[in-house]
Amino acid sequence: xxxxxxxxxxxxxxxxxxxxxxxxxxxxxxxxxxxxxxxxxxxxxxxxxxxxxxxxxxxxxxxxxxxxxxxxxxxxxxxxxxxxxxxxxxxxxxxxxxxxxxxxxxxxxxxxxxxxxx
Length: 118
Fold this sequence. Notes:
Layout: H1 5-25, H2 31-50, H3 57-67, H4 74-91, H5 93-100
Helix pairs in contact: 1-2, 1-4, 2-4, 3-4, 4-5
């Protein structure tokens, strides 16, 4: 697979809909989850816009952590998650195919805020 980080990150953005759908149905306080998803969405959107070279993606993510005030905390956790998903997209054909199909999920939110069974 020769996909660029911007392509994979764009597809990962589509997959966030399922995470948001699951979060909204939980019966506990999901504020921490919402914060994490917001950080992840921001990092993914910046990766799409910056379009770093594949062999520089890990360093680009590290720079985002440093720019956020250090290499600890929520930004670091989400950057690590994104990098793991980037590597998984390269190593697991089934995951890559799922992303390329738009990350269909029964947990994804439709535009109206309800779930969809794509």
